[in-house]
Specification:
Elements: E1 2-9, E2 12-22, E3 33-43, H1 45-52, E4 69-70, E5 74-83, E6 93-98, E7 103-109, E8 115-118, E9 132-135, H2 144-169, E10 177-180, H3 186-198, E11 203-208, H4 213-219, E12 224-227, E13 240-244, H5 249-259, E14 263-268, E15 290-291, H6 294-305, H7 309-321, H8 325-328, E16 330-335, H9 337-348, E17 356-361
Parallel strand pairs: 10-11, 10-13, 11-12, 13-14, 14-15, 16-17
Antiparallel strand pairs: 1-2, 1-4, 3-5, 3-7, 3-17, 5-6, 6-9, 7-8, 8-9
Helix pairs in contact: 2-3
This protein binds NADP nicotinamide-adenine-dinucleotide phosphate.
The site of NADP nicotinamide-adenine-dinucleotide phosphate (NAP) has 26 residues, from α1, α2 and α3.
Length: 362
């Protein structure tokens, strides 16, 4: 059967192409392997971060591609179309991490009623979450538009949830406001929603581009917002925390110099701007900028909250978040190589309006 992969040049993400391949014959699949058709996946700025950090965090090793190219991982759905595993039938629907491709062969391991894992040797260098698949056939929370929301937002909202929990646990490091860069991004507005609804004494300030202020205002979960060119208009005499989705070192420096010792926490979460130099050249006033490493917070809470503790709390937070999405997001579904390439390049170059959620299939 014909198959296709969308791959990008690892040293120049503007270069991308489709390669045509063949799926393995069902009869030639190894024992316990599944042939999965990738039915739909989400694409946001976060996937670009996976590509930017592909070498560093080993994302390129997940889905092999020709030399010097990489296949960008995406969150989405697949349907099992051939199975050599006795407990996984053809027709099973899986939710998890997929390549931008029409098909994936999964070496099914640790199969339970609700999940399985890809045990392929080349996938074992990354955190376990990237190899786990939920079996979601028949689950209404993963069907239709709810499924689109899961693919678009669930992994991002997990980060929002963990950052909110970390800040609250540390009493916002004494800050009375929290500033979020890339305020119009899904990860930022998930965090803004959590702080706004749960931490009544903390003011949420969004930093965004001029073109996205109307969207940020319409969300209703930022108490205040300011464009990047006007951040020094914020009053500098009150303690603040900074959660940086943009990864823009120029902006970070400007904020630290403006707030000085009132900058109580400075956490680096994302790289949406991608133009920054990775290392600060000099010491900045205020709290030392540090990377927020989600697995650390997960490990800590898994120990403290016990089995199912994170899932239960995350589930409650997700239930409070999802009803807003019909107002905040419009799902745009596109199919085929040309559409996938267009959405990839538009996202890479910051041309996707923040109220659009792209769901794709090759
Ligand atoms: N560390 C983690 O585990 C983790 C997990 C999830 C997300 N993140 C990070 O959070 C960030 C947001 O991801 P998302 O998927 O939520 O984003 P998204 O919804 O696709 O974000 C769209 C917004 O990001 C900004 N943006 C997008 N592309 C840009 C570009 N090329 N240049 C400048 N700004 C651009 C714009 O916001 P403004 O106009 O408001 O600036 C845009 O409205 C990413 O950097 C992602 O990697 C990190």
């Amino acid at each position: 059967m014909k198959a296709a992969d969308f791959v990008v040049a690892r040293s120049d993400l503007q270069q991308c192409k489709i390669i045509e391949t063949q799926t393995p014959d069902a009869a030639a699949l190894p024992d316990e392997a599944l042939l999965v058709k990738v039915t739909r996946f989400a694409f946001t700025a976060n996937n670009i971060t996976y590509a930017v950090l592909g070498d560093h965090l080993k994302y390129w090793s997940l889905f092999p591609a020709p030399k010097d190219f990489g296949n960008v991982p995406v969150w989405g759905f697949g349907e099992v179309i051939a199975s050599r595993h006795s407990n996984v039938p053809v027709g099973e629907i899986l939710f998890g991490y997929f390549p931008m491709a029409t098909h994936l062969v999964i070496e099914a391991a640790d199969v339970t009623k609700r999940s399985l894992r890809d045990g392929a040797a080349h996938r074992q260098d990354v955190a376990p979450v990237y190899n786990a698949y939920a079996r979601v056939g028949g689950d209404p929370a993963f069907a239709g538009k709810q499924g689109d929301y899961q693919a678009l937002l669930r992994p991002l909202f997990m980060l929002s949830f963990l950052v909110d929990d970390f800040l609250a646990e540390n009493e916002f490091f004494g800050a009375k406001s929290v500033m979020l860069s890339s305020a119009s991004s899904k990860t930022a507005f998930g965090l803004a929603h959590l702080v706004h609804t749960q931490r009544k004494d903390i003011k949420v300030i969004g930093l965004t581009s001029a073109s996205n202020t109307a969207f940020v205002e319409s969300l209703g979960c930022y108490d205040e917002f300011v464009t990047y060119d006007r951040v020094t208009s914020l009053p500098a005499n009150l303690p603040v925390a900074y959660v940086d989705m943009a990864g823009n070192s120029g902006l970070r420096e400007k904020l630290h110099r403006h707030f000085g010792e009132q900058m109580k926490y400075s956490g680096i979460i994302g790289l949406t701007h991608r133009l920054s130099s990775p290392d600060e050249k000099f010491e900045l006033p205020g709290a030392k900028p540090r990377f927020f490493f989600a697995p650390d917070q997960i490990r800590k809470r898994a120990k403290e909250w016990g089995p199912g503790g994170i899932d239960t709390r995350f589930g409650a937070a997700w239930s409070g978040f999802v009803p807003n999405l019909d107002r905040w997001l419009e799902i745009t579904e596109s199919r085929g190589p040309a559409a996938v390439k267009q959405v990839y390049l538009d996202t890479l170059n910051g041309r996707v309006p923040p109220d659009q959620g792209h769901i794709l299939a090759l």
